């Protein structure tokens, strides 16, 4: 393949070559296109390409941003790029093209990246695996029989496969951290309100959802957050500005931190031994680096929190379906959506205002208690997930569950599904996979998945680090210390290694 160094270098290193005139943006774009064409058939990460538009952009003057000329992919969810499809992973929007750029896309482009296409995502970004009926499943480059996670699974798989050095992602319940864990990447969920969501919406999922990127290096994540952070016009709120640029925190001494550590799940049940082992090894590494490590965790009622989160989610899905109908000018029908999505929307219509508000208030009161815990600790460490990357299809509703949802939808018996708790039963399978991440979307705290461990099957196992509200600085300092102590960028999935030997 042309320019073999491409697979090894992070985004800032590639941009530095462009700034020094050692390579052109067009050469970088062509190197990325060659890799997408060679590797995407095996993993189905990129679902829409913009190659000619990217080549044209690469030959024009580019912004003098930190990532000038670097190839980039957008998640096919929320990232509006004028004239290009935006499907949200749904048949309902497969022919829709926005006429404007979202503020986030404007900031990505102002940072100098060149967008080559869109990455796969589950329908409406609702689940932690990437298997939409519209495009089919995305596969993990470390083992193509397994999930790359979700909802930013296409972006995670593309970055892990070295198609691009970083890609866009969003995180409403772990959707940056989950694919980071599954794909052996660095994934930071910023503080609530840190990055823009305009101009069409003010907040997403009660403020739980926040946009950023998946990267291979810590410094790329920090530099991109510097480029995109800050309020946009009409933002309902925004995070306190940092003391200094986040990139300046990379390599800075974090000091001796007081770190709580736990493997007890917040919302699910069992935790795989590999995930516990990853945290145990991380605890020893942190102690070797001079930090104070104690076993402790905030106390939450996982069952009640799961019900509250699901109540919020059903209401949001019902509203999302109607909002997308207005955007596209189409009338939503059952056959336009996957049955699980449609059922969630119907359940959302059955939730009354009191139930919704009480669910939100319960989650807010939980966040208060978690905030009090962080008055004692600088950082909390958990597994990112309760399991290694699971086989594709294993988190889907069963055939019987889908059949029951179809029957309930046709016969308008959604109230019965609510009464018997079938949706909660399906959701429990999801929370058993992601028992650690949603809590910190609820609290709004910054959290990151760091690729510090690979199991005996050579599958990546991420470790989650959670910081105080608005304190990404400490996370970046600690992450760069860990990156130096236990580097991971040289690790390549078999899909890439077989093409670079």
Automatic annotation (TrEMBL):
Residues 27-475 form the Amidase domain. Residues 135-157 are annotated as: Disordered. One of its GO terms (molecular function) is catalytic activity. InterPro entries: Amidase, Amidase_CS, Amidase_dom, AS_sf. It comes from the Bacteria. Pfam families: Amidase. Transmembrane segments: none annotated. Signal peptide: none annotated. PROSITE patterns: AMIDASES (PS00571). Belongs to the amidase family. This is Amidase.
């Amino acid at each position: 393949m042309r320019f073999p160094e491409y697979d090894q270098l992070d985004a800032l290193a590639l941009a530095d070559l462009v700034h020094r005139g050692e390579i052109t943006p067009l050469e970088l774009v062509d190197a990325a296109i060659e890799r997408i064409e060679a590797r995407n058939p095996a993993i189905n990460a990129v679902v829409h390409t913009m190659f000619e538009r990217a080549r044209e952009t690469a030959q024009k003057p580019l912004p003098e941003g930190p990532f000038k000329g670097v190839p980039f992919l957008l998640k096919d969810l929320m990232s509006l790029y004028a004239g290009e499809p935006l499907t949200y992973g749904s048949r309902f929007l497969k022919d829709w093209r926005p006429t404007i750029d979202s503020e986030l896309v404007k900031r990505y482009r102002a940072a100098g990246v060149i967008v080559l296409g869109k990455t796969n995502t589950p329908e409406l970004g609702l689940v932690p695996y990437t298997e939409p009926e519209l495009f089919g499943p995305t596969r993990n480059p470390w083992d193509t029989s397994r999930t790359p996670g979700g909802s930013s699974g296409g972006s995670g798989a593309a970055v892990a496969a070295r198609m691009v050095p970083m890609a866009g992602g969003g995180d409403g319940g772990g959707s940056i951290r989950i694919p980071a864990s599954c794909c052996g990447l660095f994934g930071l969920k910023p503080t609530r309100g840190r990055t823009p969501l305009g101009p069409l919406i003010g907040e997403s999922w009660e403020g739980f959802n926040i946009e950023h990127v998946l990267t291979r290096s810590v410094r790329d994540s920090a530099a991109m957050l510097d480029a995109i952070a800050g309020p946009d016009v009409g933002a309902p709120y925004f995070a306190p500005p940092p003391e200094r640029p986040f990139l300046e925190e990379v390599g800075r001494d974090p000091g001796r931190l007081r770190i709580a550590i736990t493997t007890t799940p917040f919302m699910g049940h069992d935790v795989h031994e590999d995930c516990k082992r990853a945290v145990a090894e991380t605890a020893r590494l942190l102690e070797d680096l001079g930090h104070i490590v104690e076993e402790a965790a905030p106390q939450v009622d996982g069952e009640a929190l799961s019900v509250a989160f699901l109540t919020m989610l059903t209401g949001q899905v019902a509203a999302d379906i109607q909002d997308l109908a207005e955007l596209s000018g189409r009338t939503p029908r059952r056959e336009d959506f996957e049955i699980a999505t449609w059922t969630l929307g119907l359940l959302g219509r059955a939730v009354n205002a009191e139930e919704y508000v009480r669910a939100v208030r319960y989650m807010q009161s939980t966040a208060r208690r978690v905030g009090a815990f962080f008055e004692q600790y600088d950082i909390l460490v958990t597994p990112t997930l309760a399991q290694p990357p699971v086989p594709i299809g294993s988190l889907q509703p069963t055939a019987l569950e889908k059949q029951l949802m179809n029957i309930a939808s046709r016969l308008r018996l959604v109230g019965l599904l609510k009464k018997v708790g079938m949706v909660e039963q399906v959701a429990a399978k999801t929370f058993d996979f992601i028992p650690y991440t949603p809590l910190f979307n609820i609290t709004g705290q910054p959290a990151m998945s760091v690729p510090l461990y690979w199991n005996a099957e050579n599958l990546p196992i991420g470790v989650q680090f959670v910081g105080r509200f608005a304190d990404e600085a400490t996370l970046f300092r600690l992450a760069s210390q860990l990156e130096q102590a236990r580097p991971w960028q040289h690790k390549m999935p078999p899909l890439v290694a077989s093409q670079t030997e």
